[in-house]
């Protein structure tokens, strides 16, 4: 089992003919992901050859779904075109849209997220400004390297791309069911809570690592949700313990105001509901290793 992305997932890439789209589509194919085609309205009817496979390019997401049965789209398009691309994916009712692009205007993200909700949540959005989702040994949709870790029984949800990779590496001896990079923008499609519940419901995920960062209150809300709904062990890490107050730190969502949104406040909220929180990624991995050894 895995959450949202499995060995049966059929992936299309919006922007497959661009430099980033083609590079990462090839990398996904090398990892064993079932990439079945791409979308570029200007190059509809052509093909691209990647890793020895000739992939069709369609004019729209709807055409790609009809021809290939695709159920996942990975979006590699420039920020100014991202909203149109995601809206097209939502209108076509593709079940999963993974939006890698960074620099998407927050209003655009809010608008396509609202559209997805208005259409009944038929399309799950991961991102924007995220590394994507990987189910090691099964499939890979985005830019997460496929060779960091084998499959296993830990679930990972993270705001940070690089910390996703580090945690995968630190716990590679146990392996992961699915690793989800949700992105750090103020408006994102999939939250910590969404992933926590999916891992809770997955019979082949035994424990969960949750990586947050300073700014906003997503981790505090996740803590409240864990207390009420999550029975599997969770360990956490909050990036930004040394961040100066009032500064924007990297991600657009990571702004601290007073005590709200600080790493310490988030750590306190998580520990209050029984989540063990590491002060460093390596300490967090050690806490998870202890849990897995005792399961």
What does this structure look like?
The chain is α/β, with parallel strands linked by helices and 295 residues long. It folds into two domains: 11-126, 3-Layer(aba) Sandwich (Rossmann fold), CATH 3.40.50.720; 148-294, 3-Layer(aba) Sandwich (Rossmann fold), CATH 3.40.50. It has helices spanning 19-30, 61-68, 79-91, 106-118, 161-170, 192-201, 218-229, 263-272, 281-294, and strands at 11-14, 35-39, 47-50, 53-58, 72-75, 96-99, 124-126, 132-135, 139-142, 151-158, 176-181, 207-213, 234-239, 276-278. It has a seven-stranded mixed beta sheet with strand order 3-4-2-1-5-6-7, sandwiched between helices. The protein starts with 10 loop residues before the first strand and ends with a helix. The model has no long low-confidence stretch (mean pLDDT 94).
Précis, in short:
The protein has 295 residues and is α/β, with parallel strands linked by helices. It has helices at 19-30, 61-68, 79-91, 106-118, 161-170, 192-201, 218-229, 263-272, 281-294, and strands at 11-14, 35-39, 47-50, 53-58, 72-75, 96-99, 124-126, 132-135, 139-142, 151-158, 176-181, 207-213, 234-239, 276-278. The strands form two sheets. The protein has a seven-stranded mixed sheet with strand order 3-4-2-1-5-6-7, with helices on both faces. Strands 9-8-11-10-12-13-14 form a seven-stranded mixed sheet, sandwiched between helices.
Report the major sheet: 7 strands, mixed
The first-level CATH class of the largest domain is given as Alpha Beta
Portion in beta strands: 15-25%
What overall form do the CA principal axes indicate? globular
**Overall average residue pLDDT:** 94
Number of domains: 2
User: Which value, in Å, is the CA radius of gyration?
Assistant: 19 Å
Per DSSP, the total helix count is 9
Order of helices and strands: EHEEEHEHEHEEEEHEHEHEHEH
CATH fold assignment of the largest domain: Rossmann fold
The tally of beta strands, per DSSP, is 14
Question: Considering the protein shown, what is the CATH homologous superfamily of the largest domain?
Answer: Succinyl-CoA synthetase domains
The largest beta-sheet arranges its strands as: 3-4-2-1-5-6-7
How far is the first residue's CA from the last residue's CA? 19 Å
Question: What is the oligomer described by this structure?
Answer: single chain
Secondary-structure-based class equals alpha/beta
Q: How does CATH name the architecture of the largest domain?
A: 3-Layer(aba) Sandwich
Name the helicity range: 25-40%
Question: Low-confidence spans: pLDDT under 50, at least 5 residues?
Answer: none
């Amino acid at each position: 089992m895995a959450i949202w992305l499995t060995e049966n997932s059929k992936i299309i890439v919006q922007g497959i003919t661009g430099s980033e789209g083609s590079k990462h589509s090839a990398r996904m194919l090398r990892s064993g992901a079932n990439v079945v085609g791409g979308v570029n309205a200007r190059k509809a009817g052509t093909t691209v050859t990647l890793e020895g496979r000739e992939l069709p390019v369609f004019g729209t997401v709807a055409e790609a779904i009809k021809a290939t049965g695709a159920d996942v789209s990975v979006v590699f398009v420039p920020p100014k075109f991202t909203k149109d691309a995601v809206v097209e994916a939502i209108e076509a009712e593709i079940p999963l849209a993974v939006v890698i692009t960074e620099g998407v205007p927050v209003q655009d993200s809010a608008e396509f997220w609202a559209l997805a909700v208005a259409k009944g949540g038929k399309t799950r959005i991961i991102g924007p400004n995220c590394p994507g989702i990987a189910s090691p040994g099964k499939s890979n949709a985005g830019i997460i390297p496929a060779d960091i870790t084998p499959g296993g029984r830990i679930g990972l949800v993270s705001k940070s791309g690089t910390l996703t990779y580090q945690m995968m590496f630190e716990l590679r001896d146990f392996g992961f069911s699915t690793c989800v990079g949700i992105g750090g923008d103020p408006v994102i499609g999939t939250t910590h809570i969404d992933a926590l519940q999916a891992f809770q419901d997955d019979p082949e995920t035994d424990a969960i690592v949750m990586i947050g960062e300073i700014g906003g209150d997503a981790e505090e809300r996740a803590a409240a949700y864990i207390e009420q709904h999550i029975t599997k062990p969770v360990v956490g890490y909050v990036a930004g313990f040394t961040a100066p107050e009032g500064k924007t730190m990297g991600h657009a969502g990571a702004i601290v105001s007073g005590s709200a949104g600080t790493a310490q406040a988030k750590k306190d909220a998580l520990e209050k509901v029984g989540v063990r929180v590491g002060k460093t990624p390596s300490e967090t991995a050690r806490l998870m290793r202890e849990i897995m050894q005792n399961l």
